[in-house]
Amino acid sequence: MDIKILVEAQGRDVRIDLFRGIANWFIFLDHIPNNVVNWITLRNFGFSGAADMFIFISGYAAGIVYAKMTMERGFVVGATRIFKRVWQLYVAYIILFVIYIVTIADVAGRFAAPDIIYEFNVTGLVDHPIRTLAYGLLLRSRPLNLDILQLYIILMAFFPPVLWTMLRKPDLAMGGSIALYLAAHAFDWNLRSFPDGDWYFNPFCWQLLFVFGAWLALGGTEKCRAFIKLPALFHLGIAYLVFALAMTMAGRFPQFASLFPASLVDAFNPNDRMNLAPYRVVHLIFATLIVTRYVSKDWPGLRWKILQPLIVCGQQSIAVFCFGVFLSFVGHFALMLSSGSLLAQVLVSAAGIALLTLVAYYLSWSRQQDDPSQIRHRMASIDAHF
Q1: Cα dihedral across residues 302, 308, 312, 314: positive or negative
Q2: Which of 352, 368, 347 is nearest to 320 (CA)?
Q3: Measured between alpha carbons, how far is residue 90 from residues 4, 96, 204, 383 in Å?
Q4: How many CB atoms lie within 10 A of CB 374?
Q5: What is the rounded distance in angstroms from the CA atom of residue 28 to the CA atom of residue 145?
């Protein structure tokens, strides 16, 4: 199918918002250590997790939005809109970075908890505060929990040439992404971080999920449709997800691990998250294949009221993510000061999810008030009343 026809036929896919909302909630819960509630998140049931889902769906959404804009208004306009988005993400990151490290440093000094500085990877504040801030501006500092946003900024910044290629030779763009992924594994490519170490999410590897999402949005799904419908592939996917669950549980429970050969368990534990191990990619592909088989674009459940908070959080994805990073620190600190009991963990997690949802609904309402079409609608209602 021609990409232009395909993109023009694309309507609003609420599933994107739903899954981004799920990813945001799970990322928030995962960022609170020693929290029993984060046992419900994806990372505990297979090789891939909420971060994989977030990057993959972000690539899919970027492919749809910016491809349509580029074909309607030209590549220059499309590229400038992408860079505008990159700037918005960068500003959000800088604001969050400054608030984050200042809050951590203040908490460490006020409550005599210096270990929290090391736990959140901001040790440079002690010896090199100016350099830490400077490297933070260059995305070189690596404070805990901000690495996904750093990765997203880099992926979006390099998306224009990828999109240009994708609109002309989508398979070539996908092939180049795979080649870069393989080269990064073969030659240990990564970006350095300050004061030492490498990026926690290696962008040379994680770009694969972002580009793969865009490729599926721009014709890849149609090319794979006949293959996707094969019953054998579905059954293979189920078997692989069960295997991934078993290996993940084996990595957490030594007694369960003893049921399997040690070499098999060691091959998947610890899970190579930094370089996006191939088994993580395969896991995400099979999970996506199975979920979308039952959750179609017109699935009635997308209109259920119980899912609306997740959908709204997905619609305000970046704001919810940024607020969730700060809330996860607050939640972690609250559990440190309290007994850390099971009840406290549940209450902190529930309160955080409620606040994320409240912020998402407020932003959604606020943007509706600024929408000219909404304003015209309200004025027409007032005129009709009088």
Answers
A1: negative
A2: 352
A3: 31, 10, 19, 43
A4: 12
A5: 9
Instruction: Please count the residues of the chain.
Output: 386
CA distance 211 to 225: 18
Cα–Cα separations (whole angstroms), residue 65 to 13, 68, 81, 290, 312: 11, 6, 10, 25, 18
**Token pair of 261 as six digits:** 């050969």
DSSP, collapsed to helix, strand or coil, labels residue 325 as: helix
Q: What is the pLDDT of residues 228-263, one digit of tens each?
A: 888 999 999 999 999 999 999 999 999 999 999 999
- Give burial (CB, 10 Å; 0-12/13-18/19+) of 113: middle
**How many whole angstroms separate alpha carbon 263 and alpha carbon 277?**
17
Tell me the whole-structure pTM to 2 decimals. Answer: 0.91
Q: Contact 99/92 with Cβ under 8 angstroms? A: no
Packing angle, helices 50-73 and 14-30, rounded to 10: 140
Q: Residue with structure tokens 């997790």?
A: 49
**Alpha-carbon gap, residue 185 to 372, rounded angstroms:** 49
**Of 250, 245, 230, 229, the residue nearest 279 (C-alpha):** 245
Cα separation of 189 and 169, whole Å?
26
Q: Report how far apart, in Å, the C-alpha atoms of 4 and of each of 63, 118, 202 are.
A: 12, 50, 33
pLDDT tens per residue, range 294-332: 998 889 999 999 999 999 999 999 999 999 998 998 898
Q: How many CB atoms lie within 10 A of CB 221?
A: 15
Token readout for 332 is: 């972690």
**Torsions phi, psi of 285, nearest 5?**
-65, -45
Contact 284, 56 (CB under 8 A): yes
Q: How far is CA 384 from CA 368, 371, 376, in A?
A: 21, 20, 12
What one-character-per-residue DSSP string does 224-265 give? Answer: HHHHHT-HHHHHHHHHHHHHHHHHHHHHH-HHHHTTS-HHHH
349 class by beta-carbon count within 10 Å (0-12 exposed, 13-18 middle, 19+ buried): buried
